[in-house]
Each structure stands twice: as C-alpha cells, then as structure tokens.
Design brief:
mainly alpha, 2 helices, 23% helix, elongated, YhfH family protein
Length: 44
C-alpha cells in the first residue's frame, strides 16, 4: 500500500524521449513522448 501519494509521484522516473532517449521536462497538460529537439521546436 502506498503510504503517501506525494511520495509515490516524487519517486517516479523522469519521462524520456521515445526517439532519442533524452529526459523530457514534463508539463502537467502534456502527454507527448518526444523532446523539443526531436519535434523540431525552436525558441522564438
């Protein structure tokens, strides 16, 4: 049984890009599985 739900989420591994394997900085509303580099996103 999970003692503390916050502790459970803190211990989850970082999400990784499905294409290159780099860690992805997650956003709460994003379900993507590729990093900005692999998606071709550039800063404005």
């Amino acid at each position: 049984m999970v003692q503390n739900i916050l502790e459970f989420f803190r211990n989850l591994p970082q999400k990784q890009c499905a294409e290159c394997g780099k860690s992805i900085e997650e956003q709460h509303e994003c379900y993507g599985n590729k990093c900005d580099h692999c998606l071709g996103v550039s800063d404005m």
